[in-house]
Task: structure prediction
Amino acid sequence: MDRDWMRQKLEEFHDLVTEYWDAYSGPNPIDLKDLYAAEPTITRILGCLDPKMSDVVLVSSDDWGNIDIATEHVGRGIGIVRDMDEWAARLAPDAPSLPADQLHPWVWDAARTFWESNHFRAAVHAAATSLNAHLQDKVGRRDLSDAKLIQEVLSDKDPEPGKPRLRIPGDQTDPGVQTRQRGTLQLGQGSYFALRNPAAHEAGELSGQEALEQLATFSVLARLIDKCQVVT
Result:
């Protein structure tokens, strides 16, 4: 909703009503046509702000020509639209927050400079690049990168000369450990396919919320990889 526009319209109508009553007993009472013309829009606005006010009649007259203007509804609407932003900020339910500087250092240390300058897509790309570099260092390989490197080092195949593997800590015959191993592989490939590649190749900026969620995904992946054991 365009709250600034709604507030402007309500205040203009309120001023028009004030002008009407000021002139009502004077020698040249103003015409009601402007009030009647504005009434449908004001009624729609009030209905959007409070469904209970969707059917109010703002301007009416009786058989004797006496005019009644329901200014109390307009005043209530002005109060609602004036305070809506503050309600959203101060009356929102408590929710957990995610401090970016508590993300895994492989992720946040690389993303921080871009984040502070509001280059959110670049922050995600930098985090993915950093994670890839740390993974390359961990396994001593430079011939592969990103999703292909993830696929190779987290494979359930036995290690080969020049091809070490990463293993989730624990008994490798345990179904739970095996599940986490497969999950780390799938999370890694998905992160690079779905997040890193668009960050590197697509145009347009991410919102701060989207970028933070993507950094958090890479942080989860970084923690899993950081804890993995290298098997040669």
User: Anything to note?
Assistant: The longest strand covers residues 59-61. Helices lie at 3-24, 33-49, 71-90, 105-116, 120-139, 146-153, 175-201, 208-227. The mean pLDDT is 91.
